[in-house]
Write a structure and sequence with these properties.
mainly alpha; two-stranded antiparallel sheet; 15 helices
Length: 341
């Protein structure tokens, strides 16, 4: 019985997604159209990249609250380096390729700093990444005094706003990113190390894994992916505001957790996280088509986050009950690949 309930909770995201699609299809005839479906995936592209970044961190039992500010700051930095002074830029007129390299490198370096402070300086991951969120958001305003930068180059915009045939490039990137993340998590030693660390850090160390080294790499990946998401978002909007990405960390957590990534570490998979991203994007698209007030949309998002936490708590509850019924130590099962997902 416990196993059945556990499996149901693990795959609940797809049931909820199907019911949501059916509901909006009944409420509005504009929902099941090609344009709306494409818009759902386009909206999901930036959120999806951030969810992949957060999922890697969460599986190790850590948090990264700074990803939304990494997105905002790196996008602003790249635009500031490229854009003409009359459009709010520095006037350096840097080539888009160099600006992209700088923004991605900046994201990785911020992630490396987060990882260093957490592992080498033994600082709390929540406080470190919260502080970084505030610092980077402040620097984003300082860089351009809160101005909106416009007229970013077409080459820079292609990833977020371009198309290959009828398919947006951002949608292709989204699917490929989840595919690569799925392969890494399931078929490479690095992915197995993430689960081992999140399940039992001491046991992982005893088995020959260096938890601190892996955690630093995870934060670097998270920072790099946040900067990559910034490239997509800025390219899609063809402009950068000082508030770009503000508040997205809550959606990221909600999508990851409701998709099966545990806040306690050691559990979850990318297929479920992808379902969480699609669910939030589907709800946003449906509510917008129904012209629901944006104030109510925020209320609904809050309920979604609450539901995500409830689902995660119930998963933990039923797993503990299953462990007790088997009279087996949870720490032993936690690091077993058959039980961590």
């Amino acid at each position: 019985m416990y196993k059945l309930l556990g499996n149901l909770l693990d795959n609940l995201i797809w049931i909820i997604l199907l019911l949501t699609i059916c509901l909006f299809s009944v409420l509005t005839d504009k929902f099941l159209t090609i344009n709306n479906i494409i818009n759902i995936f386009v909206h999901a592209s930036v959120l999806g990249i951030l969810v992949i970044a957060q999922s890697f961190v969460l599986i190790t039992g850590n948090f990264d609250l700074s990803i939304e500010s990494i997105l905002g700051f790196t996008a602003m930095l790249a635009a500031w380096l490229m854009v003409e002074p009359q459009y709010g830029g520095s006037g350096l007129r840097l080539h888009p390729i160099f600006a992209i390299i700088i923004m991605l490198a900046t994201g990785v370096m911020v992630g490396a700093l987060n990882g260093f402070l957490i592992t080498k300086m033994n600082m709390n991951n929540f406080i470190v990444t919260l502080s970084m969120l505030i610092i980077l958001r402040g620097l984003t305003y300082v860089l351009t005094y809160g101005k909106t930068l416009i007229n970013t180059p077409k080459l820079f915009n292609f990833l977020g706003g371009g198309n290959i045939g009828q398919i947006p490039v951002s949608v292709i990137i989204l699917i490929l990113s989840f595919l690569v993340a799925h392969l890494i998590i399931n078929y490479y030693p690095f992915g197995r190390a993430l689960y081992a660390i999140g399940g039992n850090k001491e046991a992982a160390f005893a088995s020959g894994i260096d938890p601190d080294k892996v955690i630093r790499k995870v934060y670097m990946i998270s920072g790099g992916l946040a900067a990559f998401a910034a490239w997509i978002q800025a390219g899609r909007l063809e402009s950068v505001t000082a508030k770009l990405g503000e508040g997205m960390v809550f959606e990221v957590f909600a999508a990851a957790v409701i998709g099966g990534i545990s806040l306690q570490g050691g559990r979850g998979h990318m297929l479920g996280a992808f379902g969480g991203v699609l669910l939030l994007s589907t709800i946003d698209a449906g509510l917008n088509l129904m012209q629901v007030s944006p104030f109510w949309i925020n209320v609904i998002r809050g309920f979604i986050i609450l539901i995500a936490m409830l689902i995660d708590a119930q998963k933990t509850r039923y797993r503990i009950a299953a462990y007790r019924s088997l009279s087996v130590s949870p720490s032993v099962l936690y690091v077993s690949k058959e039980n961590i997902r």
